[in-house]
Amino acid sequence: MSLKNKLKRMKAHLSDKDTEQENNNQKTDDSPNNSEAIPYMSMWEENHVRPYWVDQEYCLIREVRYPLTFKQGRYELGECKRAVQAWENSSFNHPLSTKGHSIDDLFFFDTETTGLRGVGSTIFMLGYAQFTHDEVIVKQHILTHPGYEVPLYMSFLENVDYSTLVTYNGKSFDWPQVKSRHTLIRDHVPKLPETGHFDLYHASRRLWKHKMESVKLTEVEKHILKFERKDDLPGYLAPAIYFDFVERKHPEGIIKVLDHNEKDILSLISLYTHVTFQLLGQDSEQTSDEKVEAGKWYKAAGNHTASGSLLEQAYSDDLHNHSAAHSLAFFLKRRGDIQRSANLWLKVCENGSAREKREAAIELAKYYEHQDKNTAAAIQYTQKAREALLEDENLKPSARKNEMAKIHHRLQRLNRK
């Protein structure tokens, strides 16, 4: 049985009996597939919106096209093509790499919902953008009534590409909401491969949490992409506007939600471009700290070559960047360059953060004990580690207690030598 037929056959399960009765009460004598049956259709058409019918139920679909020269913040949309090609030319492995994919495989996806989570939360807008050879097409699917989810998801599932989603916190929120909204939808939406979902929220946290209190998309737009929204609808108002639309059918408010959602989607394209250029060292304005964070991410992903390359660049750019020196020292130790790593840790031990001082002092204690065979120096740096631990105000009491126990154990062992 085709997906379309299954959706039709099982659509009754998408709403409870009360909602079904409400739908029946609202039916008119208008022809169900006639646009004249839709309130304010001329206004919808002026905003590039058309209906999509399944039996007597419909959703609305908006389609807008942008040239590749359209600029969203720092980048023209077409520069994302250069980002995808950069991954293709790179030997670096990374969770955000599109190697093996073309630009038109990417599916920039965002939703609007009536609430954050839970049974009562409903997705009322599904938006996405895809590339063609000469433009970007943005499509948005609107749930016109809480009981009309069949046309919403049917129209969406005709186009969605599950393997190459690009979202902002969509791995934790948007896509699980789509998958679990109802058993019917969950049965027909395959599980996303771990490597096939590029979540830019987690990328933003990785790269910029050291300098931003919040990595909400609007904050990243403002501080990273150099794009500030003008007269944009606050996202928290979207649910109230949707409920008003369901009651009155007037498009004015929901069109503002469409514009807000569209900005989110276009920013995903620019943000993916920027993150790619940061990870591949192709952002001429990348700071030393950003290179450190990119290097740490590569290390966490198991790509030590790329990690080392970025950490070397970060330290070379700023010899006073003690975070760069600290991370580079760990890379050098792993590579076997013990002496150079020790020299870097000597600097970190004097000028790094409390955590970096503690970790550097422990590494120097190991170096002096096992490489230099200098027990007195090993004891000295173990004591420095204890001092740094006492200075660290960011540690939880349980973690502080655990670290202190390790340091005392090391001191006792060294004093017995």
UniProtKB/TrEMBL annotation:
InterPro entries in UniProt: RNaseH-like_sf, RNaseH_sf, TPR-like_helical_dom_sf, YprB_RNase_H-like_dom
Domain YprB ribonuclease H-like: start-end pairs: 108-275
Keyword Cell division: no
Biased composition annotated in UniProt, kind: Basic residues: 1-12
Top class in the EC scheme: transferase
Keyword Cell division: no
Record's keyword terms, sorted: Nucleotidyltransferase, Transferase
Protein name as it appears in the record: DNA-dirted DNA polymerase
Organism: Jeotgalibacillus campisalis
PANTHER family: EXONUCLEASE-LIKE PROTEIN, YPRB RIBONUCLEASE H-LIKE DOMAIN-CONTAINING PROTEIN
Compositionally biased residues, Polar residues: 22-36
E.C. designation(s): 2.7.7.7
Any one GO molecular function term: DNA-directed DNA polymerase activity
Cited Gene3D superfamilies: Ribonuclease H-like superfamily/Ribonuclease H, Tetratricopeptide repeat domain
Region (Disordered): 1-37
Origin: domain of life: Bacteria
Pfam family of the protein (one): RNase_H_2
